């Protein structure tokens, strides 16, 4: 039997819990879609291109052109925590973040030669999200800009 000291046991427990959380997350298609469409941390550098055009194309939201989409530039753990302590009940099944987060919102301006053209606004704001019964973010509420 291997004897573990306090710090080693704590590290092992932390590692095991991270593996469990990542396994649960990867088995939740609605949460994975939420991350693909709304999570970008750290913020992707798109040198020489417009951020929204590049990100919407990379994340598969340009066929057809999605009208509005927001990318949250915060660690995934901070976004998930909105479903718990980091958020408050807002209305229906929505949760309002307690903290303001860095968010880039992309709004469709139109199309040019078959490509979606977006207007981008980046700033700090509270966000509204919907969480599933297991406490995973699955919906970003675009209609409320706080």
From TrEMBL:
UniProt cross-references to Pfam families, sorted A to Z: RnaseA (PF00074)
InterPro entries (alphabetical): RNaseA, RNaseA-like_dom_sf, RNaseA_domain
Domain of life: Eukaryota
SMART domains: RNAse_Pc (SM00092)
GO biological process, one term: defense response to Gram-positive bacterium
Cellular location(s): Secreted
Signal peptide region: 1-26
Family the entry assigns: Belongs to the pancreatic ribonuclease family.
Name the UniProt record assigns to this protein: Ribonucleaseribonuclease-like
């Amino acid at each position: 039997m291997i004897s573990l000291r306090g710090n080693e046991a704590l590290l092992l427990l932390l590692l095991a819990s991270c593996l469990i959380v990542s396994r649960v997350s990867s088995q939740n298609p609605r949460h994975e879609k939420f991350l693909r469409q709304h999570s970008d941390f750290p913020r992707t550098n798109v040198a020489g291109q417009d951020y929204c055009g590049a990100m919407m194309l990379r994340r598969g939201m340009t066929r057809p052109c999605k009208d509005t989409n927001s990318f949250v530039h915060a660690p995934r753990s901070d976004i998930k925590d909105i479903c718990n302590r980091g958020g408050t009940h807002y209305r229906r099944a929505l949760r309002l973040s307690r903290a303001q987060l860095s968010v880039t919102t992309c709004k469709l301006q139109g199309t040019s030669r078959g490509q979606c053209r977006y207007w981008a606004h980046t700033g700090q704001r509270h966000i509204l999200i919907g969480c599933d019964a297991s406490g995973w973010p699955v919906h970003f509420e675009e209609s409320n800009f706080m």
